[in-house]
Amino acid sequence: MKPEEEILEPEVYSLAPYTGPWTSIEAAHLLRRTQFGLTLQQIEDAVTNGLDATITQLMTAPTFEEPLAYHSDETIANFGESWVNSVYPGTEAEIFKTINVRNASLGAWLMERVNREQPNIYEKMSLFWQNHFAAELTADPRATYAYFHLMRTQALGNFKQLMKDITIDPCMLVFLNGAENNKFSPNENFARELLELYTIGKGPQIGVGDYTNYTEADIAEGAKILTGWTIAGFLSSTATSTSAVYYPELHYTGDKTLSAKFGSQTVTEAGIDEYANYIDVIFQQAETARHICRKLYRWFVNYDLTDQVESTVIGEMATLMIANDYEVQPVVEALLKSQHFYDLSVRGAIIKSPLEYIFSILNSTGSAPNFDLDVNYQMYLEMYYVSEALGMGYLAPPSVGGWSAYYQAPNYSKSWVNSSYIKLRFDMASYVTLYGGINVNGNRFEVNHLGFLDSLSVPGDPNQVIADMVTLFCPKGLPQLQKDTLKAILLNGLPDFEWTLQYNEYQANPSDQATADAIKLRIALVLDQMFKLPEFQTI
């Protein structure tokens, strides 16, 4: 058997089902890539249940909760109730306040969803689609919520249908000027991104206005096809939601003919259904499947799309997607069950995004705020601002292409740990492990040190404590010297049996504050060091 460090290249470049060992190592790899943090119990359950049953669980849709009114400036929805179908107050000043607190509620709700994620892939897939479509929050938070709800509920559904729904989603109609697109002045913003980013992709440029997969003329024709849609209900004091509305008199009538890239097909005049017919034409092109499969591969496996990966894995994923009429779940399932996914070369190959970093700390230690709604939401807002400071504001991707870590060569995910961000990461880790955490009106939220310790397999054995932490937090393990260093921090120079005695004393009398604080400090120091290791920065 070769040592791990000698096995550098994938042995299988295909979706062939994984047939290797199913241990805590493989289970942890799967959970890291599909969730925002994992626990030791989840790893043990996955090992016991096996790969197929674990994948089935990951694909099970969660319950979908709505953001809640939590602030006194929300004067329509009652405290603790959903505001997503509430109208707006009558005066401009009151409307402005309502927008602010609903946007804040939305940001807190997104963080709460990630922190309290159920054991499935839906939160990771929701962020995938936000990166893919990258729409910013609108003037009406109800529209923004509806956009996120659409992506969340259809996260593993039919990509073609999702694309149709997103095309006339009020949030997207505002984001890329679709609501202003009419026969008198066709607006090409959405038509361009529909091809370049959302479906078929541009490919290398061949000539002026001529790309591998489409032409500028196709964008112009697409803009005409998409005319006639606008929005209603924004900031309304009577309408309980926003909606897309089609006006035939604003639609560019007549047939539209696409370039040879699309077989010179004609999209015939179809009024309200014409946009959907156009999308069907785009999805007839095999490159559309390859484009989205590349993004799925980079999200779940590795940013490095080598020629061999392109010609094998991506090709097989695309073939499977087309065979399933663009259903996403069969493709993601096949990828996560593949031999290629579990190869050593792709483990730890992706640097954590800010959300993955923050919530791999909180979720893996079983840490979530447990105060009243107002305090919880304020704490989640702080988490949102931290993630934003680290480069990932969930509600406002930096460009229409999403976050550069998912598309910009050669750095890709390495851009998450530049000289500015890495210091902020370390500060955040120390803040929640050593320095009392988030303080809201005297209520503090920090890592659940003692609860985390109690969740480990043998909390009274310092060697097993370190081993469990390495299993949880380090995709490729740690050299023995680093494990010894962490153990030395845990023991503070004392022999192993002293930790056992101290832990047993704490277990016998957990209300003894002095003993609990002593144990907590040692765990805090180890975790603080662990969260700053290069090995922890990856998944």
SSE succession: HHHHHHHHHEEHEEEEHHHHHHHEEHHHHH
Q: Can you tell me the number of structural domains?
A: 3
- Which sheet architecture does the biggest sheet show? 2 strands, antiparallel
Broad shape: globular
Instruction: Give the mean pLDDT.
Output: 96
Distance between the termini: 25 Å
What is the CA-atom radius of gyration, in angstroms? 25 Å
Identify the notable features of this structure and list them briefly:
two-stranded antiparallel ribbon; 3 domains; disordered N terminus; about 5% strand; two-stranded antiparallel sheet; about 50% helix; about 550 residues; mainly alpha
Structure commentary:
- It is a single chain.
- The chain is mainly α.
- It contains 22 helices and eight strands.
- It has three domains: 117 residues, no CATH class; 126 residues, no CATH class; 184 residues, no CATH class.
- The strands form four sheets. Strands 1-2 form a two-stranded antiparallel ribbon. Strands 3-4 form a two-stranded antiparallel ribbon. Strands 5-6 form a two-stranded antiparallel sheet.
- The chain is globular, with a radius of gyration of 25 Å.
- The two termini are 25 Å apart.
- The N terminus is likely disordered.
